[in-house]
Amino acid sequence: MLIRSINRVYKMSHLYKLCGTIALFLMLLLANAQVKAQDAAAGGAAAPAAPAGGGGDVEKGKTLFTNNCAQCHAVTSEKVVGPGLKGIKERAPGGDWLHKWIKNSSALIASGDQYANQVFNANGKVQMSSFPSLSDADIDGILAYIDQAGKPAVTADVAGAADTKNAGGTGGSGPTSGGPSELFTLVLVALLVVMLLVLGVLLVIVTILSKAVSPVSIGEGTQIPSTFSQRLKTGLSNTFNNPTLRSIVIWLFLLVAAKETIDGAYGIGIQQGYAPKQPIAYSHKLHAGQYKIDCNYCHTGAQKGKSATIPAANICMNCHGVIKKESPEIQKIYTAIEENRPIEWIRVHNLPDLAYFNHAQHVNVGNVACQTCHGEVEKMEVMEARSSLTMGWCIDCHRRTEVNTKDNAYYDKLVALHRKESKEPLKVANIGGLECSKCHY
Ligand code: HEC
Ligand code: HEC
Ligand code: HEC
Ligand code: HEC
Ligand code: HEC
Ligand code: HEC
Questions:
Q1: Which of 81, 158, 262, 391 has the fewest CB atoms within 10 Å, counting from its CB?
Q2: Which regions of the chain carry the CATH code 1.10.760.10?
């Protein structure tokens, strides 16, 4: 009798241990989920917040701008393919000039309009796509968005994303970077409560079951159960009581949970190895590898601007106007152009807004090869992110890499100064490549 009850207590303690393990497992999972959720929330907050006092127009304008104009224009004064559009309303002639231009710039140029021809010539006579399908309201939305985005409020947003809360927008309604993460916390707390309830119910069930089963399995363990359900019960409880099996299961649980958590924590915002399927089966291996088309032919911004830019469909048409027209993949380019919408390439590399990276600085001034950062692109059938794009990655290279000072008079004085102080070659770190403000606004 005594032995039996001791046995039962002993077994119960095992049960509680098991429940404890389940609880721990849940907590770990939850911590993991929270990390991921925070990541998502941070991602959400990093996107420019809804502008102050803006109606639906600005929001819609932003979408239209991103989908139709962003590959050639920045909302700042920086030139991409076309001029930066900051202050465009003040710069362009009044009336409906802007509407006419955006709907069909070539017609306006052909009509002999003075400003239109001036802009056209000033930008190397590059043809801007026409947008006959945009309504006047659409265009007003786009212009309102450009107006909003060009104002310093946006820079305040970026600063806001960096130090989460203290972002005071100019228009009164500050960006809501705190909002989403608070919501997530709430949802997570609710989830935790539900999970604990489930755990409690499980505990009760397990206790009741074990009470019902224990006399059979402990006392007359050798007794042959007569009914199927009894046999099942004994079988189950035997399996359940097998210490080796049980510890294996528990350890497996723990290991998986730990691995998930660690991966989650390290993987925040890192997209190394990310290689999404693109809407058109475009291959760098074929174009840049086999046909040796220069990277700069398509990524026109890399030498002269911040962004390398993704080519617009009309660059593809320079060749595919005649090459392989019948291919279904090439037909997708035609459809996009006919429907006057851009090809929706999926972005592979993406730094958070709080970090500033400039292609021209690295490719043109620094003479760093594309492949140093992007890997052997000319061998990629599908584009893949090869570098982690973390702060450590940037800093590490700045510590290691010598500045390309050859034929660059700008650096002559710096080099002379540096020689006086040190025998080491001039590294990027020596010219300010480790200063926070160089990479963070
Ligand atoms: C394929 C690249 C491309 C796309 C896409 C594009 N533009 Fe342009 N845009 C240009 C170029 C290049 C110029 C300079 C004029 C020229 O060469 O025709 C220009 C000029 C302009 C100008 C006049 C700038 C000035 O300084 O006066 C405005 C306004 C403009 N674009 C608005 C838009 C809007 C709005 C969209 C999206 C609906 C858009 N563009 C899409 C290439 C583009
Ligand atoms: C014929 C045009 C063309 C040429 C030449 C070309 N690319 Fe691309 N590149 C594209 C297109 C289109 C995309 C978007 C689709 C994709 O990601 O595969 C792209 C995407 C990329 C991306 C990823 C962009 C992102 O979303 O983050 C990188 C990096 C890149 N190219 C680098 C290079 C390098 C380096 C070379 C030269 C070795 C090169 N490209 C040559 C057209 C080209
Ligand atoms: C400088 C010329 C050139 C440019 C620019 C160019 N391509 Fe190509 N592309 C080719 C050649 C050459 C082939 C191989 C055709 C063949 O296999 O006969 C090809 C093949 C392709 C194929 C494979 C078609 C098939 O069915 O085999 C796709 C898809 C493609 N290109 C997409 C694009 C896209 C998208 C762009 C614009 C970002 C682009 N190309 C720009 C020259 C070019
Ligand atoms: C020093 C490292 C480095 C070098 C060199 C470099 N890139 Fe990039 N590239 C990046 C980073 C970082 C991003 C992500 C930028 C972002 O999200 O703002 C990027 C993004 C891109 C993109 C996506 C569109 C964009 O501009 O954000 C393309 C396309 C691209 N690079 C092409 C090239 C080409 C072509 C070359 C060579 C001419 C090149 N890159 C050289 C680091 C580099
Ligand atoms: C492969 C090496 C390499 C990597 C990776 C790299 N850089 Fe650089 N970076 C350079 C070189 C070389 C220069 C010097 C260019 C020059 O001569 O002005 C430079 C210069 C800079 C500068 C200007 C510094 C100054 O004081 O003028 C900034 C800002 C910068 N890098 C940001 C970044 C960021 C952000 C990243 C990561 C996303 C990054 N870099 C990754 C090599 C690299
Ligand atoms: C060479 C460029 C560079 C320099 C210099 C630099 N950073 Fe960064 N930093 C980055 C990049 C790129 C990221 C984004 C990394 C990512 O997404 O994983 C970043 C991210 C961050 C973050 C956000 C981390 C997170 O969890 O996303 C903080 C905070 C930060 N940096 C602080 C600093 C401080 C403080 C300094 C000066 C001591 C500094 N950085 C110097 C490039 C730089």
A1: 262
A2: 56-171
Q: Which amino acid is at 308?
A: A
pLDDT along the chain (441 residues), means of 10: 50 52 50 43 37 58 83 80 86 88 88 89 78 86 87 45 35 35 67 85 82 57 57 66 81 84 63 87 95 93 93 92 92 92 92 93 92 93 92 92 82 83 86 91 76
Determine the Cα–Cα distance for residues 131 and 100; give it in Å rounded to an integer: 10
Contact 80, 309 (CB under 8 A): yes
* Residue closest by Cα to atom 19 of ligand 6: 391
Measured distance CA(106)–CA(125) in Å, rounded: 11
Q: How far is the CA of 85 from the centre of ligand 1 (A)?
A: 8
Q: Which pLDDT value is given to residue 16? A: 53
The C-alpha atoms of residue 3 and residue 193 are separated, in whole angstroms, by 38
131 lines ligand 1 (CB under 6 A): yes
Instruction: List, in order, residues 6 or more apart from 262 with CB less than 8 Å away.
Output: none
pLDDT at 231: 64
Per-residue pLDDT, 395 = 93
Pairwise CA distance, residues 154 & 216, whole Å: 72
Residues in Cβ contact with 167 at an 8 Å cutoff, skipping those fewer than 6 apart: 156, 157, 159, 160, 161, 174, 175, 177
Residue 263 burial (CB count, 10 A): 11
Please state which of the four CATH numbers 3.30.870.10, 1.10.760.10, 3.40.50.720, 3.40.640.10 is assigned to the domain occupying 56-171: 1.10.760.10
Q: Is 329 helix (H, G, I), strand (E, B) or coil?
A: helix
How far is Cα 241 from Cα 220, in angstroms, rounded to an integer?
15
pLDDT at 227: 64
Q: Judge if the beta carbon of residue 346 lies within 6 A of ligand 3.
A: no
Q: List residues near ligand 2 (CB under 6 A).
A: 278, 282, 284, 287-288, 293, 295, 297-299, 310-311, 345, 347-349, 370, 374, 377-378, 383
Ligand 1 centroid, distance to 80 Cα (angstroms): 10
Report the sign of the C-alpha dihedral through residues 72, 76, 77, 78, in that order.
Answer: negative
